[in-house]
Structure formats: C-alpha cells, structure tokens
Amino acid sequence: MTTATVDLTDIARNDEGFFLDPEQWTEAMVPALAMFEGIIDLTDRHWQIIRFMRSEYLEKGTGPTVRVLGKASGVSIKELYQLFPKGPAKIAARIAGIPKPRGCI
Amino acid sequence: MNHPTHVLILGGGTGGTITANRLRRMLPSSIDITVIDSSDTHVYQPGLLFVPFGLADPDELMRPLDRQLHRGITYIRATIDTVDTVRKQVRLAGGRTAAYDVLVVATGARLMPEETEGLNGAGWEKNVFTFYSIDGARALAPALAAFTGGSLVVNVVDMPIKCPVAPLEFCFLADWFFREKGIRDDVELTLVTPLDGAFTKPVASRRLGELLESKGIKVVTEFNTESVDRDAGKLTSYDGREVNFDLAVVVPLHGGAAFVGRSPGLGDELGFIPTDQHTLQSRVAPEIFAIGDAAGLPVSKAGSVTHFEGEVLSENIRRFLAGENLDASYDGHANCFIETGFGKAVLIDFNYETEPLTGHYPSRVGLPLLKESHLNHLGKLMFQWFYWHTLLPGHAIPGITSDMPIAGKHNVPVGAK
Known about the structure:
heterodimer; A: mainly alpha; Arc Repressor Mutant, subunit A; 5 helices; B: alpha/beta; FAD/NAD(P)-binding domain; 3 domains; 5-stranded parallel beta sheet; 7 helices; 26 strands; 23% helix
C-alpha cells in the first residue's frame, strides 16, 4: 500500500483560513482540511454539505450562509451544527476551499 | 404589435416610488406606469428606531402612499398572488391579472418571526419586542419606559436584515436613555449578533466595537439564535450557548415578499430576486428588474442603497425599452448615519470595492466619517425632510452622487473607485 500524500504546502489562505484561490482545491485535500477543523470522522453528510458549498460557490460566486444551507442543502440547521459544531457555513467553506460566505453584509 | 407598453412596479415603498417617479419624467406618456401595493401607507422606516425612546411619533412616520406618486402614475391597491414570468403577467388576489412589458420588483423585505421557535404566534408583548415594525416599535415604548433595571438584550436572529447598523444604534440610544433616567448602572446592555464583530467591514467594525465598549455595551458574537424562551427569559443558539434576558429586543429573520416564494423561478431560497449587481436587471428574465431590499445583492438592505440604485435602474429601464445596451452601472454605494446617543451620530460611506473609511463626506469639506459628531446627528434629522421632498420624488440630493466619492477619504486603497 502506498502512502497517500496530500500536499497543502502551496495553498494560499487568508488570516481566517479561507482559500485565496479556490482553484487550488481538490477533493483529495478534504480529509486533511477537515482534520485541521477538528473533524476526524468525515461522514457522507459532511461530504454532502462540502460538495453543496462548492457547487453553490461555482454557480453563484459565494458560498451559502447557514440559513440558506438549512433551506437548500437537505440538512437541517440543527444537524448542520452537529456536523460542524464551530459554525457550519464557515467551517464547511474552509474545507470546501472557497472564500468566506458573503451573506453577512 | 401596437398595444401600449406597460411598466409594472410591484411595491410602493422607497424603491418603487423613486422608480415610478423617475420613469414618469423619463418616458413618454404613451408608456403606462402602474404601482401595485397591498398597503395604502408609506412608512419612513429609518424613523422606527426612535419610536421606542419617545423620540419620534409613529403617526408622523406614515403618509398616504398614493400622495408620494406623481401625476400620470396609476396606483392599484391589491395583494399580489403570483408572477407568471413566462406569460409576463401578475396575478392578483381575487383572480385579476395585470400584464407587463417591464416588471420591477420593489416589494422589500418581510419580517418572519414565525421561523424562530418562541417568536411564533404570541405577538410582541411582555418581555420580547421588536422595533422593526410600526406596531412593534409602538409596543416597545411603554416597556422601555417601565424598565427599572436588569438585563436588556438586543438580538439579531440572522442576516440579512434591513439597516444592519440599526441594532447598534438601538444599543447606543438605550445607553443614553438609561443614563438620562439615572439607572444605567442597573441595566446590563448586551448585543447578541450572528456576525463575528459589531459590523461586517473591518475598519468600521473596529471603530464601532470600540464605541460599544466605551459605553459599556457587551457584545456576544457568532450567535445563531435557535429559540427564544419567553417564560425563562433565555435565548439559545444552535451551538448550545444561552443568554439570559429580562427584556429582549429582537430583530427577526427577514425574507422577500410572500408572492416571490409562490412564483416558480422568481426568487432565491430566502425570497429575494437574483439580480445583476451592476445593471439591476434580474437573472430571471431580461424584462424583470429588482431594486432595494427585494433584490438579492451583496449590499446592505438600506434606503440609501435603494436611493442610489434608483438612478441606475430607471436609466437602464429606459434603455431596455429603447432596445439599447444596459450600461448604467451601480457601484454598490451605501451610506448611513449611525445614531450614537447624546445628540451625536457617526457617518459611514462605502461601496462594493471600498469599505467604510475615515475622512470627510462628500469631499474634504463635509461631514466627518467614522467619528461621533453633533453635525452628523443634525444630518440624520434633516434627512427625513430630504426623504419626502427630494428622494421619493426621484431627485438627487445636491452634492450627493450615486457613485461613491473618494475625495476627502483617508487611506484609500490604490485603484479604489
């Protein structure tokens, strides 16, 4: 079995840990990025949210807020907080390699 | 085809009224302009903040809606059922329909307390209030007057909300109010916000955060309210934190008008219209435009935004009807006076690209930015006159342009515009 190497050394991130260039992100980085957010057991529900964040960003130019996630992702806000206890929109955006969701203006 | 052209404007608030009045001057009389609104009253919403403190009379904030519309504009009072974007018609409650060639959605944002556990049903009474409606603001006044001490919590349930600085202003005015009453030491004032600071833009957030601290107002950040328990006097967040209160002033969830949700393809998840941030044309259909709080744009939901958008929107509708390119462009310009109590206010001015900075507005000689001053408070008071007499009729305020000015500002980033 070969060692799976995920290279995060060249990833440029801002002070708050958000990717500066979302193009640098790959799905292979997700388990490592999640681990840095304190998420060891990455479930299908996590993946569902991370992929949803990513596709919303690619379509609309900004990731969804918690409230929009709760309405549109198929996962309730309550469960979102169980999956990402430190703040679903922010943490999932960091793991999905997209900028901070712009909802708060 | 020879039928008359119909411009249909949904909503007769700030955005609908400005757009109707501007278009009436710009378009030939052969083009019909109609405004539909379920209410016959226009509310000066910036005044609601002052009502709970007895600093404004709610009856003086309301005027007849039709009187703000110029001659040659038709006003229909009706509830909107749905918009059929394919057949280009609006269905009204009762079954009537109105066809359009151009549709402007200007129906603002709606309060949705029913979406939060504990805010549904009971109305605004006892220990939980809001100042975001005429009735709410009116009910809060006696409760504040009777408050003798304890914990007063100002809670923003979630963004987006109308006028994101209003909850801060409420805290500043409450600090002043209780000082005047001589009971400030007996009142614990706390702002509970879903944001990670006092405001979203870094320089302003820092300055406003310092101002809150200097006035002894506590801030609880990143608090996404799950429920409000009236009996126990307790807010609970989704991540399990609790904040106790004797009196809670809540800004409920906001969404777009109900008909948007009922109209397939018209709005986003929250009922706002997906809109191009520069042309204000919707992404739904080329003949549909949106203005003000109804538009899903990365800008504050605020009257100044709507005012600046109005100039661009009316010009782009004229161009659309003439078959020209929509090259009038909105830059995200917003400004607001933030009441800080004791007859003073702070002014902020910003756009999509440039955050609120210090300096002066609109040029080197002008009102101080991001700094408490009596002059700004007078500006805020004077603004109400401009609102009814200059802004709603669709005129520019002298010296105030829809593009954000940078002369007079400090530390403007290179390339900012």
